[in-house]
């Protein structure tokens, strides 16, 4: 009996150790039928926890729309309704853009005599509950905004020390998403201020996506996985090439900490707001998708140009963002003047690899991705599909791949090992 017990203990020990060692390359994944082995192991995922918050949300990064980048405080229930309508009529909702998120300025400047938040009667005369009902009738979800401080950034009442009351109110209105900001925080550490709202949201019994907007001040990637479904890693984005590229680099630092249930958030999309060129916006969208960033549209979807719609509706790029493997892509190699010729990559399910060649210089350039920098064996043969041209560019590539890239532009591909590609066809 003792021998059998010792043998079982030994077997269990070997099994546990093998699982732990394997998990440092790629964690066992609850949303795939089996553990997948990517074609490269250079993408460290040892630091992320799967569904740490445990509310069942954020299996993939959230997608939707937010009012702030285009409208700022110039919002109303009509704008929200018309936006919901536009997401449906354009087909964006079917592609996954399901959250319609109201940002700051929706509430009265003071709470009512009972201490409750009150929607601004001039801009939201029907109230948030009626608005949520409308959005839900379109098959979409409604998000709202508050602050882990005494006031919001636009000096409306914040939810600090009002977490339970406000969470219950949001739940009673049918809110599905909370963006929780960081202004007027009284100098209290975010690690102290953000968990109470998590607990309050969970206590309502309603499943509400919890988006921390802490601006990356206290490196939330290190602690927010047990608090929220996503966490801002950077300051606010603005509609410029300089802002977008800077934020991409800052978010890249935390790639190992993102995964199903909790995502790094480099802020909302600026695509379509007019401050960048078509190529710059396409690079913005491509890199955000590769980084598994939330894809939250920030333009006026009621009045999009065809170019804007083309970018936001690229199903193949969206599929990279929503891939169930859930590993954040990252910068793997850069060279040239100031490192402006860049290779970004990330593993996907099915042993595939998403690769972006990004030219951050001011002149056209040929950028090369070498298999060594991607972590692929030099003898591995891959088929390569261009996600913006929507066609296969080569069926049997070995060792390296090069492409001509315009200034401030990128090209995005999926590399599929030949054996895998053949078995799938």
Summarize this structure as a short list of keywords or feature phrases.
TIM Barrel; Immunoglobulin-like; 2 domains; eight-stranded parallel beta sheet; 16 strands; globular; disordered C terminus
**Percentage of β-strand residues:** 15-25%
Label the structural class. Answer: alpha/beta
Q: Tell me, what's the shape?
A: globular
In the CATH hierarchy, what is the superfamily of the largest domain?
A: Aldolase class I
Would you give the CATH topology of the largest domain?
TIM Barrel
Order of helices and strands: HEHHEHEHEHHEEHEHEHHEEEEHEEEEH
In the sheet with the most strands, the strands line up as 7-6-5-4-3-2-1-8
Name given to the CATH architecture of the largest domain = Alpha-Beta Barrel
Q: Tell me the major beta sheet.
A: 8 strands, parallel
Given as residue ranges, the uncertain stretches (5+ residues, pLDDT < 50) are 1-35, 421-425
Let me know the average pLDDT. Answer: 90
Q: Count of DSSP helices?
A: 13
Radius of gyration: 23 Å
Helix-residue proportion: 25-40%
Indicate the CATH class of the largest domain: Alpha Beta
**Total count of strands:** 16
Alpha-carbon distance between the termini? 52 Å
Number of domains: 2
Family: Belongs to the glycosyl hydrolase 27 family.
Domain Alpha galactosidase C-terminal: 338-414
InterPro entries: Aldolase_TIM (IPR013785), GH (IPR017853), Glyco_hydro_27 (IPR002241), Glyco_hydro_27/36_CS (IPR000111), Glyco_hydro_b (IPR013780), Melibiase_C (IPR041233)
Keywords: Disulfide bond, Glycosidase, Hydrolase, Signal
């Amino acid at each position: 009996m003792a021998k059998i017990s010792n043998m079982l203990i030994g077997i269990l020990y070997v099994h546990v150790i093998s699982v732990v060692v394997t998990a440092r390359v790629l964690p066992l994944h609850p949303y795939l039928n089996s553990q997948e082995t990517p074609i490269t192991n250079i993408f460290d995922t040892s630091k992320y926890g799967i569904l740490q918050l445990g509310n069942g949300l954020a299996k993939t990064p959230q997608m939707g729309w937010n009012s702030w980048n285009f409208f700022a405080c110039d919002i109303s229930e009509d704008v929200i309704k018309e936006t919901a309508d536009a997401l449906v009529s354009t087909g964006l909702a079917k592609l996954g853009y399901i959250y319609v998120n109201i940002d700051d300025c929706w509430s009265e400047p003071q709470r009512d005599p009972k201490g409750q938040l009150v929607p601004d009667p001039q801009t939201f005369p029907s109230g948030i509950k009626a608005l949520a009902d409308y959005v839900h009738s379109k098959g979409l979800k409604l998000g709202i905004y508050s602050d882990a401080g005494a006031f919001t950034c636009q000096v409306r009442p914040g939810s600090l020390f009002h977490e339970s009351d406000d969470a219950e109110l949001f739940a009673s209105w049918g809110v599905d998403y909370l963006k929780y900001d960081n202004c007027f925080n009284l100098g209290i550490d975010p690690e102290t201020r953000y968990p109470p709202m998590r607990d309050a949201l969970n206590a309502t019994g309603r499943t509400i996506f919890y988006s921390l907007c802490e601006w990356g001040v206290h490196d939330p990637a290190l602690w927010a996985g047990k608090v929220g479904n996503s966490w801002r890693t950077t300051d606010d984005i603005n509609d410029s090439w300089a802002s977008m590229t800077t934020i991409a680099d800052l978010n890249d630092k935390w790639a190992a900490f993102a995964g199903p249930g909790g995502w790094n958030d480099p802020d909302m999309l600026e695509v379509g707001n007019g401050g960048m060129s078509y190529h710059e916006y396409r690079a913005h969208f491509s890199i955000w998708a590769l980084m598994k960033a939330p894809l939250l549209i920030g333009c006026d979807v009621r009045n999009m140009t065809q170019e804007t719609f083309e970018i936001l509706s690229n199903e193949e790029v969206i599929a990279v963002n929503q891939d169930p493997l859930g590993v954040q892509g990252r910068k793997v190699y850069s060279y040239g003047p100031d490192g402006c010729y860049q290779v970004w990559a990330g593993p996907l399910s099915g042993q595939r690899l998403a690769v972006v060649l990004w030219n951050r210089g001011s002149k056209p350039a040929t950028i090369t991705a070498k298999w060594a920098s991607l972590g692929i064996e030099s003898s591995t043969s891959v088929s390569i599909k261009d996600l913006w041209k929507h066609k296969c560019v080569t069926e049997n590539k070995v060792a390296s791949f090069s492409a001509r890239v315009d200034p401030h532009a990128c090209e995005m591909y999926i590399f599929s090992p030949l054996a895998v590609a053949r078995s799938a066809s």
